[in-house]
Amino acid sequence: MAANFWTSSHQKQLLDQEEVDVVHPLDKDKGITLEDFKLIKMHMANYILKLAQHVKVRQRVVATAVAYMRRVYTRKSMNEYDPRLVAPTCLYLASKAEESTVQARLLVFVLKKLYSDEKYRYDRYEIKDILEMEMKILEALNYYLVVFHPYRALSQLLQDAGLNDISMTQLTWGLVNDTYKTDLVLIHAPHLIALACIYVASVLREKDTTAWFEELRIDMNAVKNISMEILDFYENHRMITDERIIAALSKLNLKP
Amino acid sequence: MGDGNATNNRGLSSNNKPEWLQQYDLIGKIGEGTYGLVFLARIKSPTANRGKSIAIKKFKQSKDGDGVSPTAIREIMLLREISHENVVKLVNVHINHTDMSLYLAFDYAEHDLYEIIRHHRDKVNHVISQYTVKSLLWQLLNGLNYLHSNWIIHRDLKPSNILVMGEGDEQGVVKIGDFGLARIYQAPLKPLSDNGVVVTIWYRAPELLLGAKHYTSAVDMWAVGCIFAELLTLKPLFQGVEVKGNPNPFQLDQLDKIFKVLGHPTPEKWPTLANLPHWQQDLQHIQGHKYENTGLYNVVHLSPKTPAYDLLSRMLEYDPRKRLTASQALEHEYFRNDPLPGRNALVCQTGEKVNYPTRPVDTSTDFEGTTSLQPPQTVSSGNAVSGTMSGAHGGTMRSVPRQMAVGGMQRMQPQGMPAYNITSQAGMGGGMNPNGIPMQRGVPAQAHQQQLRRKDPGMGTNIYPPQQKSRRL
What we know:
The structure holds 2 protein chains of 2 kinds. By secondary structure, chain A is an all-alpha fold.
């Protein structure tokens, strides 16, 4: 259903980590490792965010676009679905789905302006490529377009916990944003991701939320596992360099 | 839909028909609108749904070079998530990558409230039976209650968007159609009024006419009230003349029509009235007219004491916050009194029924919207124009697309249609298919009609692939 996560296509499409961590055979043939795979997806999530800031759409559009991109790569190879085209097209489609349509022309203008001198060559794509890819992505998503995000649950939960001061709100909101740099959106329900972000933030800010979490009677193990993933992400993130991303992308040997 | 590959049609067959299209027999065109065409087709073997009728809505690539139309996106997005007996069922989506067109396949509904009302008004000269009105209304509210409880506002309810199933195991079941304007309203990123004025003017709620920016599911309930009245009287309740122009012109005439029947709204009864832009700006204009309050009961010929009148007047409450909700309406006394509403709205238990005409199908048009060279074989000229009643099932495949099957298409004006009889159609056909593109030729009318009406018992079977396994919580 459109507004009830429990009966939604999103809920039905949640996957296990092991299912998400499958490198498509075509990409494997190119030497793409699981690490490369994750790195490229993270890089593309950053790329979507950067584009979004230039075409001025809200965070929810970014989140939906990243979820689309990650869903595409649970089914399609990067070899056939060039991430450099998939990423902006996901933003394009998400902007329509979230009722804040961005013109394809503007998107192409921005990506040419931003990236014309970079070696990843994002600027090779034209409007026509985006429009063609839009249809391929619709197909790859099996026409399921509604995505739920942790943001709404987050503000409700913060309020409920009495933690809705500016500092905690900003910190947790930022944490939620960063979860889109991982595959968490494919694996966990949005309210659990929101809870994990609150958990991490309350540890960082030394707020005692134990009693509040106990009262919620939710699967605390799941929340702690997600929290660990979030912390792992920050831990690993420091070691990610441009060189590693370029190396991963270059394995794809994408056609000019 | 399937795994994506099934709908992939880059491999064209020898007769140039995309693979996905070969699972259907195209019967013809049944509607046309600004963003595309609607076709009637039947599912071919070897599925369990063989012979089942399907309405296929084809979206053209938008002209402004901006890909899949937001209307199509909205419709796919919502219909992929929802499932209810009284909501039209999206059975498949197809993409033709060659010409970048998108096709939505729906369960076919033979009737709609526009045609049912028109049939009674123009052909039967008799009101719709109480049982049928009540059953149609109940099912409409039932579907709407489902939508609203899922935070979906339809925003374009009108008789032609309320479909009714023809013969088969879902006969007389109401299906709310056309979600091209529907929106999830839980957390809009922009005010709901941003993407233009919605709701056909006759069914438009007063708060919208007065310029409300943040409207609610109550706008759908106003439309249901208007439709209820129209089912009772066979005439649109508030038939205002639309002011054309951009953006969002003030519709004084429509308000005037409403005030004539319901009297002026007052800030006492509707406290937020004073905040509505047009009420403030046009205060003099709006209040300049004085009305002899004719009274709603006079217009709909109901005694103010009847449950039907009570229900109607609560749906036409000015203040959207006081207006009855769909779930409240379903609990209304009207539905607990005889005759009780039923699942088959068209045939009550005593077996009394009206034979409504079937949709006219233009069998000379193919999926490209191209007209064939020869006149269609399915049309017999004798029936071509008459909107027959009892003979409706005998072969009334009129050659004129009169109406959409899935809503959202502009109604064709029969008078202005060159193809209204077989002679002129043949003439037109010759000129309209310069490429002589082959089309799916229909079988003779009689056989056609029978096949259309025979519904496979297994037709409800979901043709989507099994969902991926769900997990956690």
